[in-house]
Amino acid sequence: MSVGILGTKLGMTQIFDEAGVAIPVTVIQAGPCTVTQVKTKQTDGYCAIQVGYGVVKPKVLNRPLLGHLARSSAPALRHLNEYRTDASGDYALGQELKADIFSAGQIVDVIGTSIGRGFAGNQKRNHFGRGPMSHGSKNHRAPGSIGAGTTPGRVYPGKRMAGRLGGTRVTIRKLTIVRLDADRNLILIKGAIPGKPGALVNIVPTNKVGR
């Protein structure tokens, strides 16, 4: 995995290209992120860097985490994430990563937490069809039969039924960076990404190997 960056989803808007075509984009406040740890094969068995994002008051974090951040002279950071890279030696403790590590036209993957919808039924959660709506029907939105008969006399694990919808880790792959504002650390990505405005997102370059 190449080095990415953490950011905050600000919302969606649209921009226009040279031909006047409207492009829906998601605006992300990307970084700045601080390198809080550099891992090498000699010290940790693999090469990676750890970055932190989201400055908070020190009282929010526990003392072990504050001690860990103090080694890189970093402020109190809420979110930590690790990126594996063979070039970990190119980074130094306390170094800042900003939006300019990407470029316009680059293909990236965006990882986030989808919006939680609470407890949802089969029609909303699994896109099941409804029952008859005629007078007297008592099966408008009911799930119907869920058993497999006398044999085996139980419900198979993994049966699609009502339950919690959303609030899970989602990766949207191969999105295009339309525009980059390095001065304000803003990245405009074509299309929608997981989460609601204010949610934490992780942007990483798309790995073309095996895809």
- Give the low-pLDDT segments: none
Mind telling me which CATH architecture of the largest domain this is?
A: Beta Barrel
What is the approximate shape? extended
Work out the radius of gyration: 23 Å
Secondary structure: elements and pairs:
Layout: E1 5-16, E2 22-30, E3 33-39, E4 48-55, H1 63-70, E5 77-84, E6 96-97, E7 107-113, E8 118-120, H2 122-126, E9 163-165, E10 169-181, E11 186-190, E12 200-205
What does this structure look like?
The chain is built from two helices and twelve strands. It has helices at residues 63-70, 122-126; strands spanning 5-16, 22-30, 33-39, 48-55, 77-84, 96-97, 107-113, 118-120, 163-165, 169-181, 186-190, 200-205. The mean pLDDT is 91. It folds into two domains: 1-27 and 101-132 and 160-179 and 194-211, Translation factors (Elongation Factor Tu (Ef-tu), domain 3, Beta Barrel), CATH 2.40.30; 32-97, Double Stranded RNA Binding Domain. The strands form three sheets. It has a six-stranded antiparallel beta barrel with strand order 1-2-11-10-7-12. Strands 5-4-3-6 form a four-stranded antiparallel β-sheet, with no helix packed on it. With 211 residues, it is mostly beta strands.
